[in-house]
Every structure is written in C-alpha cells, then in structure tokens.
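Sharing a chain and its predicted structure for anyone who wants a worked example. Both blocks are below, sequence first, tokens second.
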Amino acid sequence: MEAIITIVGFLGSGKTTLLKLLTNNYIDKGWKPFIILNDYQNANLDAQQFIQQVEPKQVKALSGSCICCSGINELRDFVNGIPKRTKGITLIEANGTSDACSLMSFLGVGLNDRFLPPVQLSVVDVKNWQKRGEHNELEANQIQVSSLIVLTHIQNVQKERIALVIKDIQKLNPSAEIINTEEIDISLLPKISPSKNNVDKLDHLKAHWSSCSSDLPTLPNLNCIYDICNALPKSILRVKGCAKIDKKEHFTYFERTPNGEVSVRPFNGIPITGPKLLTIGPGSEPELLEKAIRISLRPHVTY
C-alpha cells in the first residue's frame, strides 16, 4: 500500500525546503514520489522547482482553493487518480494557512484502498513559533494532529528557546515525535501511524486570508525586488514571485517571510505564467501590488 505524507506548517516555516529534501532522499533510495503542492495563488511557481527532480507528470499544482475545505474534493480525486508505481509515495504540501485538523479529518475519507491512511507532518519555525500575534491560534492548530513535528530555523537560536518551543508543542500534541531536519529517517515515515489526538476546534475563518497576484515587468536590477518587498506592508504575511532582471538569461525567484526576511535565488526554467508577484495576507489587493511595483521602478542608486 502507498503512504501519503501531508506536510503542513505556517507561512515561511520551511515546508517546501523539507519537501525538496524528502523528494531527493526518496529518489536516492529508489522510491518514486508523487508531489502535490497547494497554494492560494499560482502553486505552479513552486511546482516548477521540482521538475529537475521528478518528471513533470509526477508533480501537480493545486491553486486557487484551500485543500482543507473547498479544495478537498479536488485533492482527493486527484490522489485517487495517481498511477500505481513500485515503491510509490505521495507527498502533499498544504498551503501555509491550512486548517490542518480539518484537512486530516476529510482527506482520508473516500481514498482508494491502495493507499494507507494519510499521515501529517508539521514544520515548526522555532525562531518565530507563537510570535504571530493574532495568528498564533492557527499556528498552534497546525501541529495538533501531526504524527511527526520537524523543527526548523534553529540555527543561532538559544537552547532555552528551543526547549521552550518543545515544551509548548508537547502540551498541544503529547503523542507526536519531535525531531530536527537532520534526524529524519525517510524509511520510517511510511510506517508512522496517523494521530488520534482530540483537538481544539479552530474558527475556520481564521484559516482563510486574502491573496492576490500581479504581472511583473522586466526589472532593471536586483534592488527592485527588495524595494517591492519593503513597500508591501507587514500585514502581507507572505510575498513571493518570479522576476526577469534586465538582460539576465535566467529568471529570479524571491520571497519575503512573515518576519520580513527577503531571499532570492535562480528560478529553474521559465515560469509558465510569466513573471509574477504573489501575496498572501490581510490587505492583499491588486492596487497595493501595483503601487509597490511602481515604487521599485523609480530611479535609484544601484549598489
């Protein structure tokens, strides 16, 4: 029977990085992973980053709806249609605002008998755990029915902070195993049992935020990306996109995490939707994105 591993966690916690790690490790061990990514806006941007690891037909992007509710039927139907493979495993990355408890209660209903009951894995950003203000409840909800919790962003974090986060997690989910990324044993993941925890019900509206996207013109230099990210208010919890910089041959992928850190890296290939700016969070509106783009294109000094 084929295992289904669902990766959940707050925006910017490191879900996609972990998914890439799991995918590479499974491929190295002779497994054939099938990858599903969910996001409010253009999940294809992240999906394209996996086509150098697996064949394009083994990656599916689900955009525009949340798989914890309105997108659950689409997700379940797609999982049931995944072709049988020897040593197959299905890896699902939920969007960063998913109601993780609802997702697990619905996903396992109606799956084909060839699949094992879905297991949830949570990613916890130790540095920013429960520093989300009004979104702390959602972040806490995302670990309550996880069988395994992976701690990320622990570099340069004091041991006292790590111990405090672990203590918090154990109160919310006493049955989960807690490890860091280096301790993951991929051979054991398919053997993990689903959580049987009773959970605190989340007001589902807290897991649904506005999102928006806008086309990006060719940017004159890399500084424009930082200008765009700095021009968008902190209420926008997630900023990401793919840009064409002047005459550079490759595209550039960028993202701003909820704590304001901006990172850029080369994008593999050409984005199928063209250069895009994407935002998730209260206040995401086309006018706001377009204003940030205009600000970035004003004449300024290149360093």
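Comments welcome. The longest helix spans residues 15-28.
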